[in-house]
Amino acid sequence: MRRADGYYAQFCVDVERNEDLTPTGKTIGLDMGLESFYTDSNGVKVENPRYLRKAEKQLKRAQRRVSKKSQRQQESYQSEEAAGPSTLESLQAA
After folding, report:
1. How far is residue 64's CA from residue 79's CA, in Å, rounded to a whole number?
2. Residue 10 lies in a domain
3. Is 30 helix (H, G, I), strand (E, B) or coil?
């Protein structure tokens, strides 16, 4: 299949899968939380990855760059308006 951004292949496979599972008798409990991603009944804690906090730094930089760019554009528009139409017309006629 060809799309604007490249080629893609799509497959559909029909296979019956049988897995023999033997019970080990070991069970654990999981507690999902906000402070830690999860804590199991053996006391193992996995820290929360905090994707939002990491992404906020990148977003902050990007927003600052856009803001600075729009400020520079606004300043150039204001300087053109301050120059007045007569100055711009004389430059275009030359």
Report:
1. 23
2. no
3. strand
The three-state secondary structure class of 6 is strand
Total structural domains within the chain: 1
The span from the first CA to the last CA of the chain, in angstroms, equals 55
Give the residue from 21, 42, 46 showing the smallest Cα distance to 32: 46
- Per 3-state DSSP, what percentage of the chain is helix, strand, and coil (rounded to 5)? 45, 15, 40
Give domain status of residue 87, yes or no.
Answer: yes
| Token pair belonging to 17 | 């899968």
The pTM (predicted TM-score) of the whole model is 0.35
Whether the CB-CB separation of 59 and 51 falls below 8 Å is answered with no
Tokens 């996995």, residue located: 46
What are φ and ψ of residue 93, in 5° steps? -75, -25
For the segment 53-84, what is each residue's pLDDT rounded down to a tens digit? 888 888 888 888 888 887 777 776 666 665 55
Q: Which residue has the tokens 């520079």?
A: 72
